[in-house]
Design goal:
mainly alpha, single chain, elongated, 44 helices, five-stranded mixed sheet
């Protein structure tokens, strides 16, 4: 007897053999069930070798208890000790699967199926499994027989007799035999239906690919035909009844549980389509309606049950369509959509535990292999395998995938699939989530041979393999392209030029020949530059392909690289700063504006990094003005000073555009910014501040060049329109008014000449031909418009507004804000116009009617001929003009009494009107949404086309680029236009009520 407080030697031995609850294990060993064998060291050693010794011991005790009488118990225990194959298999299963332990406790004689150890038993196929299921005559007996067969597969798996590929193939063969047995039961129940039709069951997915999981939906497609001389319609109905019954036999839960769901949703039209179709009906659907993913699914199609001749005919008939899928018009957008990792539907709490769908998961491997099969399987029949690992091996042999990459991917896929098998085997439940419980992780780790620290080692290996898949997923597509063009060292197989072009076309490149030339220029040679670019390009090419214009992205990258490739900081930036390379890829492939700005001064690439010189956050007006004024002071003359100011403007325009693009597209680490209004405010504020700082610097340069430190007249620039409202877009002109006031003792005419000379020189210098984008100053909102003087004194403005001011001028002055020059003079101008733009007691009825007449006239006269009024962002229905005039009318009517309305900014005024209950929250939200969307579209058009525009582009690629900027996936430009029309239509309804009083 063990002394109190001391552990028994058995307890210690159990700990040493891997038991986590030695006390419970000791009690089980000392029970009567294992009395004949408890002292045999062979038993303890065998239990210690299992994935979960505690679970294995409990399962063994339950199995012994369930035996029918002492002779049966003795036979089990004697065989267990004497026969090592049985001992390893039985205890291995009991230690890995609680569900199979439950099965053995319910069917205690089934352990005998593990005794046989002949050659044919090591790798059974469909025929062997059919023999194992032969006695099943109803759903219950079929389930028992299925679990008995599954028991032998699991035993070979956990003992290492079969590897992953063999285990998955055996599971698929067992599924084939089970479908045949279920169909036989269904036919026996409805013999009249059976003789009336031909029914083929075609396996899809992992079953079709001969790579099934322990617990998985078995995907199938049914093909039905009439027998010779029979009625086809009645035959299809009979086939449908048989197919439905067969599915229920497998899927329904009985006293013995279920087998697995049979899923026919991959059929034409999915769950909305008929369960059974004739071969001709299938063919008609795939010829006319099928999407790319449906052809991708057909890669796995394999006849397994029913009329196999009809099933083979189905596969042979559709095969040509599968291998022509890459030639379809919509292949590229479909591929881009499928390549995007869709993880939004995975709960946030689960994404880190997802083996299948998360980045670096099983789906990444399977999708990559299938895509390459679709692209290259047209010309190379060796690639036409439904099994992922076989197809990956064939791709490597043909040079379509790098051999080293294929080996690493094969290794990672095998590990992740084996891990998935062990997770499912425990409870025989369909799941792809790695458990959180330490005991479960310990069992899985030990089952994979990780014994020192199973939990820590499992997590480390899992993360390593997932990271490997993530890294190789993109390289898999592009590294062979670089090998094909660089040709630095002999390899066994390379992509042919034709195969390389096919791949580039499939990935969205419209001009594959040019793309290959660019790749050759970038990747060839033995220089440090070429070596680093060969490392970067596989990932960059993937990011380019994720855009609407991959060709432009690659071409622009070559231009930047040619300009900066010899500067060490450039390559170091892309190689070492994680964000820089992806940011650059996004910017270079999003349109023309940002690359054009960058090409004029490629060193601005440094802004895209996350180091000291990087940073995409737009700078505020004070910092901009300080830098520009310092540059002006250092310049030798006026033109040189303005050139310096324009250079800062170009750089900061690029920074703002890059920020906008990266925020709109998102990156692999950071999702796209969801708040579209925040992006509009960011761009509008940044460009407006930059324009104000540029004008301040130009004014200082002009004055210094001709007058020294002091101009004869005080001078201020008043921002108007979008400029005053902090809402400038990338291509907006600067609407301004110029006001001056002669200094004491200066003649009025001299002051006027000086002021006019300043304006003239500012406009000239800002439009000089240069590498920098011009800045057009527009003063047409001044009194008397184009007919009036460019510059007025403050007194002249006061006299004009007192005597001649029209209501439209009061409306225009709502946006007036001092942007440059003499702040005190500017402030007095604002004081002068405040009573005009916020009139006491609001507007009279005649003034309101006049504003409405002006708006109606503008709508009818200024809309460009041929333009679609539902898609014109400025003058169209529910566009910028509609929203702004409505908000401005509210400001004119109520600004005198509501301080919040006294702002130059549209969105601020709208929010203030809502807060003052001048319009409902719903109406305010509707107008704000439309205004933000229309502004985003205008910004997108400028970014994409490199020139301003108020309508969506007509060119398909440019339209797709606008869609990507706005967050629409490839192939969804129709949704974008529909959403725009719907949003602006709702806004117009609000405008009709609030502005027109309808």
């Amino acid at each position: 007897m063990t002394a109190p407080g001391r552990r028994s030697s058995t307890f210690t031995r159990l700990l040493r053999h891997g038991f986590t609850d030695p006390s419970a294990a000791e009690r089980l060993l000392e029970g009567p069930e294992l009395a004949p064998v408890r002292s045999d060291p062979v038993l303890l050693d065998a239990l210690g070798a299992t994935a979960d010794p505690d679970l294995a011991l409990l399962g063994l005790v339950r199995l012994v208890e369930a035996q029918d009488g002492d002779p049966a118990r003795r036979e089990l225990l004697d065989t267990l000790i004497a026969a090592k194959p049985l001992r390893d298999r039985l205890l291995g299963v009991l230690g890995a699967s609680a569900a199979l332990g439950d099965h053995l406790a319910r069917h205690p004689d089934d352990w005998q199926t593990l005794v046989t150890y002949e050659a044919r038993d090591l790798h059974p196929g469909v025929q062997e499994f059919e023999r194992g299921l032969a006695d099943a005559t109803d759903p219950v007996s079929l389930r028992v027989a299925y679990r008995r067969c599954l028991l032998s597969i699991a035993a070979r798996d956990v003992c290492g007799t079969t590897d992953l590929a063999q285990t998955a193939a055996e599971l698929a063969d067992l599924a084939t035999a089970t479908l045949r047995a279920a169909l036989a039961i269904a036919e026996a129940a409805a013999p009249d239906d059976a003789v009336m039709c031909r029914l083929a069951v075609v396996a899809m997915g992992k079953c079709g690919g001969h790579e099934l999981n322990y617990v998985s939906d078995v995907d199938v497609i049914f093909v039905g035909e009439g027998v010779e001389g029979g009625d086809e319609g009645k035959a299809v109905q009979a086939a449908t009844r048989l197919a439905s019954h067969m599915m229920r036999i497998c899927s329904e839960t009985t006293v013995e549980g279920s087998i697995w769901p049979v899923d026919a949703n991959l059929r034409p039209e999915g769950r909305n389509g008929p369960l059974v179709r004739t071969l001709s009906s299938h063919l008609a659907y795939y010829q006319r309606w099928a999407k790319t993913w449906e052809f991708q699914a057909l890669l796995k199609a394999r006849p397994v049950a029913g009329d196999l001749e009809l099933g083979e005919k189905y596969v042979a008939t559709l095969a040509p369509l599968v291998w022509q899928a890459a030639e379809r018009e919509n292949f590229v957008p479909d591929v881009q959509k499928m390549r995007r990792r869709v993880v939004e539907n995975i709960p946030v709490a689960e994404i880190e535990r997802e083996l299948k769908l998360a980045p670096g998961g099983l789906r990444d491997v399977e999708f990559a292999v299938q895509l390459l099969q679709l692209v290259h399987g047209r010309a190379d029949t060796s690639l036409r395998s439904g099994t992922t690992l076989d197809a990956l091996k064939a791709l490597a042999a043909g040079g379509y995938v790098g051999r080293a990459d294929a080996v690493q991917l094969d290794d990672a896929y095998r590990f992740l699939r084996t891990m998935e098998h062990r997770i499912q085997l425990f409870r025989l439940r369909r799941t792809h989530l790695v458990p959180e419980n330490e005991a479960d992780l310990r069992r899985i780790g030990r089952s994979l041979g990780l014994r020192a620290d199973p939990v820590k080692e499992l997590n480390r290996e899992w993360k390593r393999h997932a990271a490997m898949v993530r890294r190789l997923h993109e390289k898999l597509f592009y590294r062979p392209l670089l090998d094909a063009v660089a040709q630095l060292a002999p390899v066994e197989a390379r992509l042919s030029t034709g195969a390389a072009r096919e791949r580039l076309i499939a990935l969205g490149y419209a001009d594959p020949a040019a793309a290959l030339r660019h790749l050759e220029a970038l990747a060839s040679g033995v220089t440090r530059k070429a070596a680093i670019q060969r490392t970067l390009l596989p990932v960059l090419l993937g990011w380019f392909a994720d855009s609407a214009d991959p060709d432009a992205g690659l071409l622009n990258f070559r231009k930047v690289s040619d300009a900066l490739g010899k500067t060490p900081w450039y390559l170091r930036l892309l190689r070492d700063e994680g964000a820089a390379a992806e940011n650059l890829a996004r910017v270079l492939s999003a349109g023309r504006l940002a690359p054009d700005l960058l090409m004029r001064a490629p060193e601005a690439v440094a802004l895209l990094g996350d180091g000291e010189s990087g940073g995409l956050e737009p700078r505020d007006r004070a910092h901009l003005e300080q830098e520009i004024l310092a540059a002006v002071r250092r310049a030798d003359g006026g033109e040189q000073a303005v050139t310096a100011a324009r250079g800062v403007r170009r750089r900061e325009l690029f920074r703002t555009a890059a920020t906008d693009i990266v925020a709109s597209y998102g990156t692999e680490e950071t999702p796209a910014v969801a708040d579209q209004g925040a992006l509009v405010d960011l761009v509008g504020g940044a460009v407006s501040d930059l324009t104000a700082a540029t004008l301040a610097g130009t004014l200082r340069a002009v004055v210094r060049d001709s007058w020294g430190d002091t101009l004869p007249t005080r001078f201020a620039v008043i921002g108007m329109g979008r400029f005053g409202g902090h809402e400038l877009g990338y291509g907006s002109d600067a609407d301004v008014l110029f006001v001056h006031e002669p200094r004491e003792g200066v003649d009025d005419q001299e002051a006027s000449r000086a002021a006019n000379a300043v304006v003239s020189e500012m406009r000239r210098m800002l439009l000089l031909p240069s590498a920098d984008p011009p800045l057009l100053i527009d003063a047409d909102l001044r009194p008397e418009g184009k007919s009036g003087p460019l510059v007025r004194t403050l007194n002249s403005y006061e006299a004009y507004y007192r005597r001649w001011s029209l209501v439209w001028e009061s409306q225009a002055l709502l946006r007036a804000e001092v942007v440059a020059g003499d702040e005190e003079l500017g402030s007095r101008f604002i004081e002068l116009v405040d009573p005009l733009r916020y009139p006491a007691e609001g507007l009279g009825e005649e003034a309101v009617r006049e504003i409405r007449r002006l708006k109606a006239r503008m709508e009818s006269e200024r809309m460009p001929r041929g333009a679609d009024p539902t898609l014109h962002t400025k003058l169209g229905r529910g566009g910028l003009s509609d929203v702004e005039w409505t908000v401005q009318l509210i400001q004119l009517q109520h600004g005198w009494v509501e301080p919040g309305l006294r702002t130059t900014r549209t969105r601020e005024a709208l929010a203030a009107a809502c807060a003052a209950e001048l319009l409902s929250t719903e109406y305010a939200a509707t107008l704000d949404e439309a205004w933000v969307l229309a502004t985003r579209v205008r910004n997108a058009v400028m970014l994409v086309r490199g020139r301003a525009g108020d309508t969506f582009p007509s060119d398909g690629r440019e339209l797709a680029a606008v869609g990507r900027y706005l967050g629409y996936d490839p192939g969804h430009v129709g949704d974008m236009l529909d959403d725009y029309r719907r949003t602006t239509r709702r806004a117009r309804a609000v405008v009709e009520e609030l502005f027109y009083g309808a």
